[in-house]
Amino acid sequence: MGQLGKTSVALMRMLLQGRAPGQLIIQYTDQCNAHCPQCGMRVSHQFPRKTLETDKTAAMIRSAAQKGIKALSFTGGEPFLHLPQICDLAQVAGQSGIEYIRTGTNGFLFCNSGQADFTDRMEQLADQLAATPLRNIWVSIDSSDVATHEQMRGLPGVIKGLEKALPIFAERGLYLSANLGINRNFYGADKDHDHLDYDFFYAGFDQFYRFVKNLGFTIANVCYPMYNAVTDSDQAVYAATASDRVVNFSRAEKINLFQALSDCIPVHREKIRIFTPRCSIHTLLHQYRGHAELSTPCRGGIDFFFIDSQNGHTYPCGYRGDEDLGDFSALNIHSVENRKECRQCDWECFRDPSELFSPLTGLRQSPLQLLQRWRNDRRFFQLWLEDLRYYRRCHYFNGRELTNVEKTGVCQRIKKRGYDETGQ
Ligand code: SF4
Ligand code: SF4
């Protein structure tokens, strides 16, 4: 049996045991050089910063692979402040058999694109990243209005640099993802009002997808707002959360936001790979409309875990900081006793895959609930099937290749540089 066959069999076995493929998010550092108002790790926020030790992190990664973790993410802070270490750790993960490895950046390396050595720097960076088994690399985008984005991040010129750099990455078979952290300025700072309606969000998402596609991205994702009752408390361990108004939305605004996002995705997802699953948005809408029973409890602390850079300990997620699960290597992730059902936040890293796997994990875990869901919410299953078919056509968002989905709309700049549309 080939590697693909073995992976599929292992995946099916796991799902039939009621478990979702494991995911580990390692916050390698909380150091950062950006100014984002929505984030507790912005450079102006004074607190003792910590970076994990590389050897200990490598040991955790090997342990994660042995425990069956399938997806590994290096987050920050700004991971690219420690790029050589992140590249080495990605190699450790790949050699240990973890396939889905990702990291991201605020894009600070793309600044100063007017300097004479910019192209050389980008070629070296792309070569360095292409030599790793990193499958996905995201670049954070806060607004489709360039001035607003650069002012929020405190990174002048970053968009111009990205525009120049993306074709260089594409020539090496690296397709970066644009990652929008939804905030009140995402459609431009001058458009924020007391109450944001459906039309605002729809126009904002529509503009965002057009903007990043025109920049040269071929994959896009959105991060749901990182503010809520949990993140506003002292419990949150992951400091990429804040109580700033810029990420604070009322319940009515969230309903408008998620409805507009769901409606906008089909308009764009045949031109750019859009990771956001509509079945997950559908259930978040149920939750905000008062029908939480029609959504799936998060797999945080069951199949998905977070490692904090401050002490290197494991937590159920980035928010439940009062549940220190200790050293990841010593953790029995197959014991799910006393793990609570949680729907306290919208963190897409955990909520989206929890929903995506729910019809399969539910077969073993709660078949009666699954049947009830089938009776009460057929629309969820329709959207789920559509998402699965789409994910398949997108090659599960492999950032090391182009797919038919976006080839027709592939970045004009890539074409101008003589890129062969067959992807070869
Ligand atoms: S959102 Fe990211 S780039 Fe911005 S301050 Fe936080 S860690 Fe840094
Ligand atoms: S919903 Fe998931 S990510 Fe959010 S607080 Fe609960 S376990 Fe954590």
TrEMBL record:
<feature type="domain" description="Radical SAM core">
    <location>
        <begin position="27"/>
        <end position="155"/>
    </location>
</feature>
<keyword id="KW-0479">Metal-binding</keyword>
<protein>
    <submittedName>
        <fullName>Radical SAM superfamily enzyme, MoaA/NifB/PqqE/SkfB family</fullName>
    </submittedName>
</protein>
<dbReference type="InterPro" id="IPR013785">
    <property type="entry name" value="Aldolase_TIM"/>
</dbReference>
<keyword id="KW-0411">Iron-sulfur</keyword>
<dbReference type="GO" id="GO:0051536">
    <property type="term" value="F:iron-sulfur cluster binding"/>
</dbReference>
<dbReference type="InterPro" id="IPR050377">
    <property type="entry name" value="Radical_SAM_PqqE_MftC-like"/>
</dbReference>
<dbReference type="InterPro" id="IPR007197">
    <property type="entry name" value="rSAM"/>
</dbReference>
<keyword id="KW-0408">Iron</keyword>
<dbReference type="InterPro" id="IPR058240">
    <property type="entry name" value="rSAM_sf"/>
</dbReference>
<dbReference type="Pfam" id="PF04055">
    <property type="entry name" value="Radical_SAM"/>
</dbReference>
<keyword id="KW-0949">S-adenosyl-L-methionine</keyword>
<dbReference type="GO" id="GO:0003824">
    <property type="term" value="F:catalytic activity"/>
</dbReference>
<dbReference type="GO" id="GO:0046872">
    <property type="term" value="F:metal ion binding"/>
</dbReference>
